[in-house]
């Protein structure tokens, strides 16, 4: 293991190569100019599954998935189907600009369905359908959460 880490470090340092490894059971994909790992988890159907960091509890490097381009949206919706993302309403006053990504990245891509987001104060989460359209929904709609790890040169493992 130590030898593998040393070889990975030297390869990255000397040749500028990056090592991309997903934890066991996660799906690797490159889009939007970076490589990430994705994992679909079943949720308890409450908003707390997003706010209370269910994805980081699965793997300390993961968050609810942030979607940054049409290719990533197409990949995640076709691969995982209907799931809540890591985008949610932050704060007590509803506003279409009050949504944030759990991982702290900017919201630089959206794919809202017609009439969405629809200004409903109970709709705190963002659900991506299998067709790729986004809806703001109540937390009880979140029966599946899409988790994501944006990779760099680190190798990550699932928590035991």
From TrEMBL:
Transmembrane segments: none
Signal peptide: 1-16
Key words, A-Z: Signal
InterPro entries for the chain: C-type_lectin-like, C-type_lectin-like/link_sf, CTDL_fold
Species of provenance: Panagrellus redivivus
Protein's UniProt name: C-type lectin domain-containing protein
Keyword Signal: yes
C-type lectin domain span: 37-148
